[in-house]
Design a protein that fits this description.
This protein is 46% helix and 14% strand. It is of the alpha/beta class and 264 residues long.
């Protein structure tokens, strides 16, 4: 950690009151940034802003007008914007397509991808005025491949990934870098349901080469690296942070299976 890495720079973090967003906001402030936390949880967001000496703006990112208000507030507070971290997101239930409520599909899309479009639409002109900036988007390894009965989330996160690439192409000329992070299983409030089912959690960890869930702080490390000048030649990249889960093809561990058969 460097106390001055983001001195003189400003950032907006959506979903910044908990999980990966909170860990990143904390790290940005610790390294000198002026941060505006945007979150639908007013109580938690205000408490965190007070703790960090950051600003807070209530925001349901499913509402485009509220996103516009947040970006306008950032301009008022900071005179511009250097870093936008589009981190807010939700799951979306578990159902195959015939059983999926269209309202759930629409809500997932509104929060996970539409909100990123609306935030970028307002942030990019601010960044152009100051000849550059950084946009980070939270995607997921679920945007790289499919999951059983998780269609809305899969589709939304795949959209985040390709939208990130398209933004990087369009705005490299503006000196705006755009990258996405694809977390795997991370120990945050979003995965509380998994954490409460020990058998499922153990099964999940058994599929991760590192054998554990990641932490919000580990994701914040990646986000802050990408937001910093140390990543000045990185744009359009999709950074996977999943403990090695997607490194394999999905085929069984044949060697271990055969060894166990021979031992038996």
């Amino acid at each position: 950690m460097r106390a001055d890495r983001f001195t003189g720079r400003s950032a907006v973090v959506t979903g910044g009151a908990s999980g990966i967003g909170a860990a990143t906001a904390r790290r940005l402030v610790a390294e000198g940034a002026k941060v505006l936390i945007a979150d639908h949880d007013r109580e938690r967001g205000e408490a965190m802003a007070a703790e960090l000496g950051a600003a807070f703006a209530p925001c349901d990112v499913a509402e485009p007008a509220q996103i516009e208000t947040v970006l306008n507030r950032a301009e008022e507070l900071f005179g511009g914007l250097d870093i936008l971290f589009n981190n807010a997101g939700i799951g979306g239930g578990t159902a195959d397509t015939p059983a999926l409520d269209p309202a759930i599909w629409r809500r997932v899309m509104a929060i996970n991808i539409d909100a990123i479009f609306h935030a970028c639409r307002h942030a990019i002109p601010l960044m152009r005025k100051q000849s550059g900036g950084v946009i980070l988007n939270t995607a997921s390894i679920s945007g790289l491949a499919g999951d059983y009965r998780f269609t809305a989330y899969n589709a939304s996160k795949a959209a985040v990934i390709n939208y990130t690439r398209a933004l990087a192409l369009d705005h490299g000329k503006d000196n705006i870098r755009v990258n996405a992070i694809c977390p795997g299983l991370i120990d945050t409030a979003l995965t509380n349901g998994i954490q409460r089912q020990p058998a499922l959690l153990d099964h999940w960890k058994g599929r991760i080469p590192l054998g554990r869930a990641g932490t919000a702080e580990e994701m914040a490390n990646i986000a802050c690296f990408l937001a910093s000048d140390e990543a000045s030649y990185i744009t359009g990249s999709i950074i996977v942070a999943d403990g090695g889960m997607t490194a394999g093809t999905g085929q069984p561990d044949i060697g271990t299976f055969l060894s166990s058969r021979q031992a038996g």
